[in-house]
Structure formats: C-alpha cells, structure tokens
Write a structure and sequence with these properties.
195 residues, mainly alpha, 46% helix, 2 strands, extended, single chain
Length: 195
C-alpha cells in the first residue's frame, strides 16, 4: 500500500492510512469507554422495574402523576419477593436473632434493601428529568415508612440498626532500633592474648 502525502492528494480525500487510523481511534475510544458500575447497573434495573410497575398499575400511572403513596404501594408489592424472615409479634421467636426452629412468619424485604432501593430510585428519578422538590422517593411518607420498617424489623428479628462508630486509627509505634552487634576483637587484643 502506498502512503499518500497531503501535498500529492489533489482531491483532498482522506488517505487510506488516515482513514484506518481514525477508525481505529474510534473503535479504541469505544472499547475504552468505562463500563457502568455495579451501582449504575442496579439503578437502571430498579428504574425499569418501577416504570414497569407504573405501566401495570390499574389504572396505569404516568411518572408525573406518581406520588409518595404510589411509592409505598410499590414497596409493599416488593415484599412478596423478600427473603428476610420477619416474625409477627405473636410468634414465639419474636425478637430472637437466631430462632431455633422454623415458623410460619412471612418473608419480607429487609429494611437495608428497601433503603438502598429508595436511594437508587431517588437518584434515577432526577437523572430522568424529575425535579428534586417533586421527587416522590424523597416524600415524607416514604421516609416515615422506612423508619417504621427499620424499627419493627429490629424488634422482630432482634437485630439492632444502630450506626457503627468509626474507631480512630491507632498510631503504630515504630519498631525499636536493632541492637548494635557485639564488638569484634581487635588484632592488638588477639596478639596480647597469644603471648
């Protein structure tokens, strides 16, 4: 293949070498584009699930009509897919963190999962053009609901959700310097001892 210099190209068409290099640059840029993080992928899936819930709602809801009450309906709907055993107050294992036997209490969504879900959906709502002051995921009723779920699950499961305090880093003392080696006998001492 012949290299074409810019001066010898009368029609100002890009040379094949430049065209190939620019195509390679574009494909390299596309391949080096950062892949979405785990959080971004989960946020996208959660948003799709919520929008699907709104479409399947009877009557179907638009995002602009969505309120904190609809978010609460969505959270209660998700409880059927939960994997966390939450004991009823009448259950003999109420308040025990590790019950000794199975019981008929329902499986629910764990409070931590719901809290993280609301955080992701709140961010996704604003990324999709929603106004922060009209965000249904930040509604007071949703915050109260999450607090009540946390408190009830803490009692029912015997698990405390107190914030853990960060411990200050302890200063590590430098190791003591190594002991000096014993002195070597000098030649004068060795010759004096041999006499």
């Amino acid at each position: 293949m012949e290299l074409v210099s810019p001066q010898s190209n009368p029609n100002n068409f890009p040379s094949p070498i430049l065209a190939n290099s620019s195509a390679r640059a574009v494909s390299t840029a596309a391949s080096t584009a950062p892949t979405p993080s785990r959080y971004e992928n989960q946020k996208r899936r959660d948003w799709i699930t919520f929008c699907q819930y709104l479409r399947n709602h009877r009557p179907p809801l638009s995002l602009s009509m969505c309120s904190g009450a609809h978010v609460l309906e969505f959270l209660r709907y998700l409880d059927q897919f939960g994997k966390t055993k939450v004991h009823n107050p009448t259950c003999p294992f109420f308040g025990l963190p590790n019950p000794p036997a199975p019981c008929p209490c329902p499986l629910r969504q764990a409070w931590g999962s719901l809290d993280a879900l609301i955080g992701r959906l709140r961010a996704a709502y604003e990324e999709h053009g929603g106004r922060p002051e009209g965000n249904p995921f930040g509604a007071r009723s949703v915050r109260i609901f999450l607090r009540e779920v946390r408190d009830f699950q803490a009692k029912a499961r015997g698990v405390s959700y107190e914030k853990k305090r960060k411990r200050p880093k302890q200063k590590v003392a430098p190791p003591p310097p190594p002991a000096p080696p014993p002195p070597l006998p000098s030649l004068v001492d060795a010759t004096a001892a041999s006499k």
